Give the backbone structure.
Amino acid sequence: MEYRLINLNVVPNIGGEIWKIIDVDSDFYDGFGELYISSISNNIVRDWKQHSEMLCSFVVTEGEVKFILQNNKDIQELHLNADKPVMLQIFPGTWYTFQGVAVKSNILNLANKKHNENEIRRKKINLEKR
């Protein structure tokens, strides 16, 4: 399985903070296809997904999300939350799913390619509660 975790640069600001996620000069920038935010409720698990071409770059902006990544029989479980801003990049060919572990969680996805249903494989979720 191929993935990368990138610590985000958090800049204190009056009354809050700024999360610098990516720019065109970032070493890990691989083009722009689309940007969207998904929300997921507590204990909801999304079906497995594998992209053949798309690099997905996820940032949890609210709440906490458990990601499960799989290649062959190797499984990796990662917990991302808005209190420790990181970007999770999941490379093409890696199966993944995710589960909300907070009342409400938001996940920003910066994809390097525009959505194309023809490059996505899907499986119904079949996980015991982890």
Q: What stands out?
A: The chain has a mean pLDDT of 93. The radius of gyration is 15 Å. The first strand starts at residue 3 and ends at 7.
